[in-house]
Amino acid sequence: MRRSLVNLFLLTISITDLLLLIFNFFFLLFPVIALFSNSFTLQDIYPVILRFSYPLARIAQTCGVYLTLFVSVHRYLGVCHPFQAKRWITGKPVKCAIFGSVVFSFVINATTWLELTVVPCYSKQFHRLSRHIQLTELQMDYTYGIIMKVITYTLVMFIFPFVILIIVNTCIIVALKHSTNMRALHTGGKSSLSKTNNSQKYAQNEMAVILNSSSATTGSQFSSANSTSFRPMAMRSIKPASNFHSSTRDSSVTLMLLAIVAMFLTCNGLAFCNNIIEILMFVDKIDNSENESAFEKSVEIANILVSLNSSTSIFIYLIFSSKYRIIVKEYLGLKNTDKAYSGTLTAAAITIRHTFEYPFLRGDNISPRKYLSNSAKSRISSALRFPISSQRS
User: What is the pTM of this model?
Assistant: First the structure.
């Protein structure tokens, strides 16, 4: 149930990322294409598109920020407070959080619809009237700028979500390392104890067979004693393996969300710095004329990073989710492709995932090899060797 709720969060985040990419195209790229073209139609229509794509892009960005915040809090409750999460994390609160994020995004960005307007203006290039974009008096008002840009936008879009995300994900990382160390110590203690007990039973049974059995029946009794002594150990080894795979799946989901948050913080960090610089320029603490060119370049880079954050989520899903890779192969028609290339891509994804997992899932005093089962090691090694063997054949 909790995995389906996480998938619901991820689906909504993917939709907002897609919408943000579409609106950013019409807000950032389409005006440049129109201005560099010689088409009167494009230059006449782009102000109208820009007029509506700007507030829609702000709404999609705000919604994506708070959906990322909610999915991090959701995973924090599941990792750090698992018993309370079973009562708190249900379908209704998650749907309310998603719906609340959408409504809040529209409400907080309601005034952005009033910041731009389209006015007719005479075009010297085409010698006729055309539409142009213009800032409204509300957008240029000093009090409005202080309230919306300096206070509201900084708190809502940067300080509050950044602080919560850093605190929550730090707690998740600490809890992951602690649970990994405890599980490794528990598994190591049980395995060493079971090996000692089984070796003692094996020695006692073997000695009993040698002393009390005739030479004609020694082989059969020894084989029966051997099978009875090893059967409990084989049965006991099944449960830790299943527990290991279950905990590995949970850790993989958690690490996937950590990767999403890390990418979000990295790509939005420059936008946060630009917002601080814009505030200082707005209150005349920095000379605008000397730093305007550098600031404009920094804003363009920040816009590219925000779009990059929305477009790289698919690669995180491909790396951390095997089911997602299977679905993508089916939709792209790559299900029946050469197994050598498929094995290479899968091995590359697994290698990247384990590279990201290593700092969080390794124990402090225990070798990280103990956290991989033999079946997992064989799958990774066979996947890495598969393309070579196929080429030789």
Answer: 0.70
